[in-house]
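lol forgot to send this yesterday, sorry. struct tokens for the thing we talked abt
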């Protein structure tokens, strides 16, 4: 019985330490990417800056729910493992259309959007890019099926933001929509 207790204790300790280590590493990767982005916008010609898959393109801050992250180009597994990813075929912040981003809200990977479920209508979402700071006002919050791609639809008469993340243990998607202030 003592042997089983020791094994279970050791296994529990390994799981806790693994989770803590992953969180620390994710925070390290976020800080490294923020520094890279800041350095990039200070050094480069912002009008002609080439954007490749995985490049830092901006920062997202949602003060009301304590969210802050780097936004990178692309939404593949590697891009959203540690960061928020920009759907490449959608416009950039401040442009006409629907600027769409996605990120994890689990403790398994990057948990950048864990608090997103606490966001409220009319909260502010700030996006900073090499072109400036853009403030969006939350206009809609809802859940949908993972297969519902209509949330990425474009309306070129609007300057809007769509955030996509998992909810209900990954079974559904939480969608947060915002309109440029």
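and heres what i got for the seq, position by position
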């Amino acid at each position: 019985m003592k042997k089983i207790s020791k094994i279970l204790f050791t296994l529990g300790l390994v799981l806790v330490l693994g989770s803590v280590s992953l969180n620390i590493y994710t925070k390290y990767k976020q800080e490294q990417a923020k520094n890279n982005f800041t350095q990039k916008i200070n050094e480069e010609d912002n009008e002609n800056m080439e954007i490749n898959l995985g490049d830092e393109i901006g920062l997202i801050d949602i003060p009301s729910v304590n969210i802050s992250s780097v936004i990178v180009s692309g939404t593949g597994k590697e891009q959203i493992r540690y960061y928020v990813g920009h759907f490449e075929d959608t416009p950039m912040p401040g442009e006409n259309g629907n600027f769409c981003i996605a990120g994890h809200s689990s403790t398994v990977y990057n948990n950048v959007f864990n608090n997103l479920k606490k966001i409220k209508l009319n909260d502010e979402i700030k996006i900073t890019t090499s072109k400036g700071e853009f403030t969006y006002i939350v206009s809609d919050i809802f859940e949908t099926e993972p297969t519902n791609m209509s949330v990425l639809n474009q309306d070129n008469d609007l300057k809007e933001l769509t955030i996509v993340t998992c909810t209900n243990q990954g079974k559904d998607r939480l969608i947060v929509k915002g309109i440029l202030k």
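DSSP finds two helices and eight strands in the chain. anyway ping me if u want another try
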